[in-house]
């Protein structure tokens, strides 16, 4: 790519010019043996290569195959098999001869295209790399050299550009005579550039660019060079080296002129060293890189410095080296017993990165069924292999610079006397978590059967996620349990003998039955004297099954509920407002889907005596005694118990220490502070939050026993909210230090009848599983910590 130069800023830099061009992109040729197959049974020793043909002339495409005879060789053009004809013939050694290469026209199809050599024997079929055959061409010049005026001792530069196949050879003529390449002042660059350093009067004349290849020879328009007298900035260059060969070579051009002669240097923009091996400087500063590799790609910087000054000019350009696909790991031939899994791996590199495809006996192999492709197609996995999977598999890596292939054979081992596949496999749903699979024994070779193996997976899962369950040989049905409700499963079965497994039976599908959802975990937070916040875990799957949540609530003294309030399955909270601040409320939440309503989760909470903000609320069945401590200025309610504190002021800290003696249950302690807001700090994740009431619903067996219409209520929770008469006697208040900074009042709840409730014993805290209780809240149990001993 060409790069411009900066204009001089003063007379001293008037004759200082920098010009840089790079050969980009630069395409490497593949090594002669690149991509040769590695299957001993059938492989390519020689593959066809890209070529350019002269119209009307013959061309031969080479192909040599090694393998177990007999081997049949055919050719494809653009994916279609070529038939033998007088125009093209497959020779005895496997090469293809085209006697007269044709282009479009005259009613005959063009011979240009992609050619593949195809070899086949009893083990399978392999296809060679694609060889692109193009006709030799030569375009007109699209850049002609331009007339130039130079000063004695200066530098002149001519350039021409032309396209052709194969790449044209560029030479130059002066006054219709080829220039003397032995003249060290004349530098010819392969991209059509002529540089003349140390100009002299005899260099004046008319220069022509001559381009030639096997298709044609073309001559550009003439460009006159005029050499004038010595200018302000004469140049005294050192003799340049002789032009090196350019096979596999990249040229980075940089021309700098000035007086005194500028010092030209090269570097990489990324700071990596250019190196010295294969690196030369040609002419006044052209960088020549021999044996170019992908590692030479990058941005190069040409810098010209005027000696003794700080005057400096730079130009930069990018060198892009393209490399055809090349294998760093070939697939290996393998042998596997029938019914097992076969895996092939191949890894290729190139620039740009190659795309990998797989062939099975010459046909493109895509994912599906028991075939999986992973890791950008570099890994081929075939599960549950059978005799039909025995073939030659090829890994084909291709990019814009070329393609390569490598092959490997899969041999499926089949022992004599193995039983056939089990027959009449059927699957019937029994419940929401169980499916019964039945089958009949194979038709042949059943005497040595030692058992069956049932293969199970979700229908939507890939084959590698399946699991197996063993079944005795005398059993022809099996109950598969612990499945997910409303889910489709795939089943197949194999018979096993001491010598191996049978082929797999035909797969069968069955879906588990649906069921109503389980009780949702529900937590309650008191936000004020008339507002409750309900929190639970969202269930997005409910929306997939036409479901959601139903919410009911009522004062515990009333017989009828308000509701249902229908909520989507993705919702995880709801606020109840405008409640009676003197009442105890019963809240009931259940989930439903197309199979019906699930069991409800029931909670009781008292608003009696709760102030407008941050009450300290205590239920003995769920938490230790109330602790009132510092609270964040944001009035965030603590998440470590059912303790809600109200605290006003900013100058002193008020502590409330409450002691409950044995037998005093069902009391609600309202702690009133007169200064800073206090709340207990968060406890461990394994504890329960004093600000939230969270009880788990009953398990499946308990729900079946109690029935859907019965309420699940914790005994101790009810005892706290509705204490027995024996527990209603007042107890003397603990003596309080007159200097204590807090004052706590005790308020008792009046007892309500326990009519219409079913009692369920409280589960031990270890048995309550952790639950997510909503955004911003701990995802596990809730508990309070003791109050700190000091501020």
UniProtKB/TrEMBL annotation:
InterPro entries according to UniProt: FN3_dom (IPR003961), FN3_sf (IPR036116), Ig-like_dom (IPR007110), Ig-like_dom_sf (IPR036179), Ig-like_fold (IPR013783), Ig_I-set (IPR013098), Ig_sub (IPR003599), Ig_sub2 (IPR003598)
Coarse class of the protein's main subcellular location: membrane
GO biological process: cell-cell adhesion
Region feature (Disordered): 756-791
Ig-like domain location: 32-139, 152-220, 234-316, 324-411
Coiled-coil features, chain-numbered ranges: none
Keyword Nucleotide-binding included in the entry's annotation: no
Pfam (any one): I-set
Topology term for the membrane: Single-pass membrane protein
Ranges for domain Fibronectin type-III: 421-515, 518-613
Gene Ontology CC terms: membrane
Segment forming the signal sequence: none
Gene3D superfamilies: Immunoglobulins
The UniProt record lists the keyword Ligase: no
Subcellular location(s) of the protein: Membrane
Spans through the membrane: 642-662
CDD domains linked: FN3 (cd00063), Ig (cd00096)
Assigned keywords, A-Z: Disulfide bond, Glycoprotein, Immunoglobulin domain, Membrane, Repeat, Signal, Transmembrane, Transmembrane helix
Family to which this protein belongs: Belongs to the immunoglobulin superfamily. DCC family.
Protein name (database record): Immunoglobulin superfamily DCC subclass member 3
